[in-house]
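PROTEIN DESIGN WORKSHEET
SECTION A - STRUCTURE
LENGTH: 308
TOKENS:
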């Protein structure tokens, strides 16, 4: 007796075969992926600006039945959302250069790319801008250095070109501090050595690090000044100077740790200025011995006018 052909629900067999084929394609693609994993994830300084509604006083509620009739619901003509988060067009990364035998940060905003590790190291090797170089910044990292693998939070690079012991550690510190800003990198391995992290190069930080503002930035009042410091009694002093070097404002704050340990600090400084001009943000320690400004970091900026 001839068995009747098995009938599938409409569309079931073709869809099953299509799903199996798609799974095979995805598995093959994963097996052929680049093991270097060039994407390090979003940089912490790369947050996209968010538009906010203007703020103002909240109007009192209208008693029931006394207000105008409610408006009909708006009809949206926008295409339906796909649920996917739009990729930012630009990426802001923190770069660590060398100044006076220590490492110091600045920032760059560049078109977004999946190969964030390559972008970061390329910008690091390219060196400082003219304005940054004028403050003494330089780079010791040669061109062509790339991450070869990222796995389990460790970014692996080939050994850096030969240099003196001091230059080698500064080069490595530049790379380690730049790459570990990304959430997917906690440590860095050079060649076959043991992985290292920021703590291994903490001695190459100056007493006061200013992470914001950066050289050449246009700032508005109040200026938010942030960074880390290891200073006497954790006291961090800030002042703003105009183009002629006149003091416009001064304040101080305390870091989360100090006098033998490094802590974070953040403070806002208000100033008044009738016209936009170049200026300087100074961050320093007041000497407990004679009251002079010591461990000073000067950041040239553009000061926006505030009006009268």
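SECTION B - SEQUENCE
RESIDUE ASSIGNMENT:
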């Amino acid at each position: 007796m001839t068995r009747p052909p098995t009938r599938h629900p409409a569309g079931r067999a073709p869809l099953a075969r299509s799903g199996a084929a798609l799974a095979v394609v995805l598995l093959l693609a994963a097996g052929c992926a680049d093991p270097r994993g060039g994407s390090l994830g979003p940089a912490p300084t790369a947050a996209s600006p968010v538009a906010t509604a203007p703020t103002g006083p909240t109007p009192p509620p209208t008693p029931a039945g006394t207000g105008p009739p409610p408006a009909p619901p708006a009809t949206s003509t926008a295409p339906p959302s796909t649920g996917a988060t739009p990729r930012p067009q630009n990426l802001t990364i923190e770069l660590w250069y060398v100044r006076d035998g220590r490492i110091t940060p600045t920032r760059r905003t560049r078109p977004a790319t999946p190969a964030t590790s390559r972008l970061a190291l390329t910008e690091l090797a390219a060196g400082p801008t003219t304005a940054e170089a004028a403050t003494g910044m330089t780079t010791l990292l040669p061109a062509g250095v790339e991450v070869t693998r990222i796995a389990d939070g460790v970014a692996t690079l080939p050994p850096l070109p030969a240099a003196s012991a001091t230059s080698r550690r500064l080069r490595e510190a530049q790379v380690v501090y730049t790459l570990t800003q990304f959430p997917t990198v906690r440590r860095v391995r050079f060649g076959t050595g043991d992985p290292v992290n920021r703590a291994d190069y903490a001695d190459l930080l100056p007493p006061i690090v200013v992470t914001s503002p950066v050289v050449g930035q246009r700032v508005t009042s109040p200026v938010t000044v942030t960074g880390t410091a290891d200073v006497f009694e954790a006291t961090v002093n800030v002042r703003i100077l105009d183009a002629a070097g006149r003091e416009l404002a001064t304040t101080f704050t305390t870091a989360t740790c100090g006098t033998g340990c490094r802590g974070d600090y953040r403070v806002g400084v208000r100033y008044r200025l009738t016209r936009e001009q170049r200026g300087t943000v100074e961050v320093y320690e007041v000497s407990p011995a004679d009251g002079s400004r010591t461990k000073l970091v000067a950041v040239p900026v553009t000061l926006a006018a505030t009006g009268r």
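SECTION C - NOTES
The first helix runs from residue 12 to 31.
The radius of gyration is 27 Å.
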